[in-house]
Amino acid sequence: AVLRGFQQGERDYGVVVRALLCCIRGMSQFSEDVLRLCVKYKDQGVVGMDIAGDEEGLNPKDEDMFEKSTYEVFSKARDLGVNRTVHAGEVGPAKCVEQALDRLYAQRIGHGYGVLKDANLYARCLKDMVHFETCPTSSILTGAQPLSTFYHAVCRFSDDEANFSINSDDPMVTGTWTEQEYKLVQSWGLDEANIVRCNVNAIKSCFLPPGEKEEMVARLYAAYGIQQE
Predict the structure, then answer these.
(1) Radius of gyration of the chain (CA)
(2) Confidence at residue 147, expressed as pLDDT on a 0 to 100 scale
(3) Are 78 and 84 in contact (CB under 8 A)?
(4) Helix, strand, or coil (residue 73)
(5) Phi and psi torsions of 24, nearest 5°
(6) Could you give the CA distance from residue 221 to residue 132 in angstroms, rounded to a whole number?
(7) How far apart are CA 47 and CA 29, in angstroms?
(8) Which residues contact 171 (CB under 8 A, 6 or more apart)?
(9) Residue 226 buriedness (CB in 10 A; 0-12 / 13-18 / 19+)
(10) Angle at which helices 31-40 and 68-79 pack, to 10 degrees?
(11) Nearest to 88 by CA among 62, 50, 137, 43
């Protein structure tokens, strides 16, 4: 039903929407079902899978940052050609990001602010162009980046030309849409060029299949009046 709604919206309004199906920390009993649905609807609008949930209280000295069954499910997802993004390092330690990349085979990282606590890991992410899905308002509401933080992770990512995008997380919870997120990061010092770069990063790092992704990149470049590389 969700996918039919997206398809109708695309026909009627030209807005392209695809779906990620999300596993939840502490509810790994449903993860196999999530993967099964990703495979079943892979060619009908589901472009990948995710795992989200609270990282509060995780100890970086622990061997595993995720449940053992989660590693197995995401390994299967990789073998089945299902794209993978992982919420990691939002409030949890940098080790969450490291294990998301190395053991969950994440192609993108949700939030990821904790990566800044590990200089070597951050340098690796910059070199490998790991995409971070940042959510400015949400980061403050959750305490991931408290208001007392003088230099927000988004600003650091921007200064370092990291591969990141600006997102609204859950608009019904945060009460914001993308426009408000842009205004917030502009108040932190990001300019229009920074935001354009973020949107180009977002499209280039999205999970659209080949052909569709190139079309969306071309549409974005045309909208901005940018000469395509």
Answers:
(1) 17
(2) 81
(3) yes
(4) helix
(5) -130, 135
(6) 21
(7) 22
(8) 177
(9) exposed
(10) 10
(11) 50
Strand runs labelled E in the chain = 19-24, 46-52, 83-88, 108-111, 131-134, 164-166
Which of 83, 75, 69 is CA-nearest to residue 21?
83
Structural tokens at position 29: 């009993």
Q: Which residue from 31, 135, 130 is spatially nearest to 91, judged by alpha carbons?
A: 135
**What residues are labeled active site?**
90
User: Tokens representing 64?
Assistant: 């595993």
- Rounded CA-CA distance 189/187 in Å is 5
Is residue 101 a contact partner of residue 130, using CB atoms and an 8 Å limit? yes
Q: pLDDT of the chain along its 229 residues, tens only?
A: 999 999 999 999 988 899 999 999 999 999 999 999 999 999 899 999 999 999 988 999 999 999 999 999 999 999 999 999 999 999 999 999 999 999 999 999 999 999 999 999 999 999 999 999 999 999 999 999 988 778 999 999 999 999 999 999 989 999 999 999 999 999 999 999 999 999 999 999 999 998 999 999 999 999 999 887 6
Question: How many Cβ atoms sit within 10 Å of the Cβ of residue 69?
Answer: 13
